[in-house]
């Protein structure tokens, strides 16, 4: 399921700094690279201070094809 | 034995509103109720909860989620909701049907 | 008479029996085979997972689980006799 995203932002999680937001604009994402897709709860999102969220990046998913 | 077999089984879990934990190939565990499952065994979950929200906060704000079937490693099913006997005989029947 | 004609017959004769599964990323599973399909997707009951990561062995008891077949390397019945049919 290929997707087209508008006004997208990329979130980079790290243990040193808080979450970094990168503007990624309009992009096409190939369906086979998608693991999870979901509707965001904006209320809950507002209540989170992303500068204080420190976490490792999720490990990659190795499947048969890549 | 068609892959329809497991789709039908998961539809049964949906009807009985069983809560499951889907474990992805990268180890991420997402708990929730399945709302839909398609031919590719992609899942839709409602109110997904990550097993370790402190270490893995990436998905905590999701209201619902679509999980691509190919990224799934396990779906943990509560033992009491498994219906083991039913599944065993259904599977044997299915194998017999296919051999004919 | 039941004969072992094709590879998947190993699974056919193992329904409701204990099996051993080796998977990618150094993971091994033991449990009761409840059902399977042609993709080697399976439902395993009372599963026990052993994983070897960086020389460390971890065991997990997992209850019942649906297992996606694409990660499987080999499957073997734990009960002797099944493969000699």
TrEMBL record, chain A:
GO CC, any one term: U6 snRNP
InterPro entries: PTHR15588
Species in which this protein is naturally found: Paramecium octaurelia
GO BP terms, alphabetized: mRNA splicing, via spliceosome
Record's signal peptide: none
Keywords: Ribonucleoprotein, RNA-binding
GO molecular function: mRNA binding
Protein name: Uncharacterized protein
Origin: domain of life: Eukaryota
UniProtKB/TrEMBL annotation, chain B:
Swiss-Prot/TrEMBL GO biological process terms: mRNA splicing, via spliceosome
Gene Ontology molecular-function annotations: RNA binding
Domain (Sm): residue spans on this chain: 8-77
The keyword RNA-binding appears for this protein: yes
Coiled coil: none
Alphabetical UniProt keywords: mRNA processing, mRNA splicing, Nucleus, Ribonucleoprotein, RNA-binding, Spliceosome
Location in or out of the cell: Nucleus
Protein name, entry field: Sm domain-containing protein
UniProtKB/TrEMBL annotation, chain C:
GO CC field: catalytic step 2 spliceosome; Lsm1-7-Pat1 complex; P-body; precatalytic spliceosome; U4/U6 x U5 tri-snRNP complex; U6 snRNP
InterPro entries to which the protein is assigned, alphabetical: Lsm3 (IPR034105), LSM_dom_sf (IPR010920), Sm (IPR047575), Sm-like_LSM3 (IPR040002), Sm_dom_euk/arc (IPR001163)
GO biological process terms on file: mRNA splicing, via spliceosome; P-body assembly
The entry's keywords: mRNA processing, mRNA splicing, Nucleus, Ribonucleoprotein, RNA-binding, Spliceosome
Pfam assignment, any one: LSM
Keyword hit for Ligase: no
PROSITE patterns linked: SM (PS52002)
Family according to the record: Belongs to the snRNP Sm proteins family.
Protein name: Sm domain-containing protein
């Amino acid at each position: 399921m290929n997707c087209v995203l508008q006004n997208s932002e990329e979130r980079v999680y790290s243990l040193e700094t808080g979450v970094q937001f990168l503007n990624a604009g309009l992009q096409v994402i190939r369906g086979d690279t998608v693991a999870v897709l979901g509707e965001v709860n904006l209320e809950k999102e507002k209540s989170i201070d992303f500068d204080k969220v420190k976490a490792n990046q999720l490990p990659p998913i190795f499947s048969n094809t890549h | 034995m068609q892959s329809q077999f497991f789709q039908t089984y998961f539809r049964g879990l949906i009807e009985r509103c069983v809560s499951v934990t889907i474990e992805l190939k990268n180890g991420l565990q997402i708990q929730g109720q399945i709302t839909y499952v398609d031919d590719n065994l992609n899942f839709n979950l409602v109110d997904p909860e990550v097993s370790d929200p402190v270490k893995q906060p990436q998905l905590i704000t999701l209201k619902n989620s679509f999980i691509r079937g190919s990224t799934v490693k396990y779906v943990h099913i509560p033992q009491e909701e498994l219906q083991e006997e039913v599944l065993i005989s259904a599977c044997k029947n299915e194998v017999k049907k296919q051999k004919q | 008479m039941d004969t072992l004609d094709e590879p998947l017959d190993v699974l056919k004769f193992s329904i409701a029996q204990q099996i051993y599964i080796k998977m990618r990323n150094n993971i091994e599973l033991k449990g009761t085979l409840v059902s399977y399909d042609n993709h080697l997707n399976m439902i395993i009951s009372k599963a026990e997972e052993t994983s070897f990561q960086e020389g460390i062995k971890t065991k997990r008891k997992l209850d019942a689980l649906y297992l996606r077949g694409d990660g499987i390397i080999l499957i073997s019945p734990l009960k002797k006799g099944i493969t000699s049919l």
